[in-house]
Amino acid sequence: xxxxxxxxxxxxCNIAYQKYGIYIGPEKISRLLPKLEQCxxxxxxxxxxxxxxxxxxxxxxxxxxxxxxxxxxxxxxxxESEHFHELVNDIKHSHRTSHTIWCAACSTGEEPYSIAxxxxxxxxxxxxxxxxDLNRNVLxxxxxxxxxxxxxxxxxxxxxxHYFTPVxxxxxxxxHSLRYYISIKNLNLMDSLHFPEPFDYVFCRNVFIYFxxxxxxxxxxxITKNLRVGxxxxxxxxxxxxxQPENLKKAxxxxxxxxY
Length: 260
Fold this sequence. Notes:
three-stranded antiparallel β-sheet; 9 helices; globular; alpha/beta
């Protein structure tokens, strides 16, 4: 039986917050403990002290397994698809010759692939997507491009036939040609990120639920610095910006526009 003390839990939660901005409140501890116990057991650590020591030392492989443990990567293709239709409409009414999109916290790739498929189906090809996540394990799955049929439940049979190939046992491989439009990067929203050019659109959806107000402000500041004036930020439908920055104006359902 693995024992994890309050001191050890506090240490682990502090590392999650300081490193990734992820706030684990008291109400989430009961759900965290079984995950930590499983992590310790699977990795063969001597106990919670070893996990704490190796996390504190900043061991990369331990941190990567830890972030996989404390975050949920449940998603599916065409989730909250209304945003993709808003994106298409805005692109079609813009006068720009190319369009750049940042999918921050892209997980296993369903969101950026959904955007790419939507735009291509609308005849839009002059775009590029930067898809980023702090979890290298989910990015590896993204790069592999093989998904269980349950992830495809919200798409039409036509889309499935066009972009996916069955690979057996209810799994499908996505058309690898879509990667022409997508670059995958390992990035942390808590870091000081400066892209060469600002983005026209940023999708950062269902991410802020992991943050408290302080880390949420920091992430939004990083995002808006990399969003052009007039560009749009899309957040999850269930999310709210409690302290909306002055340079963002609400422009739709969970959509904000950078005004200066």
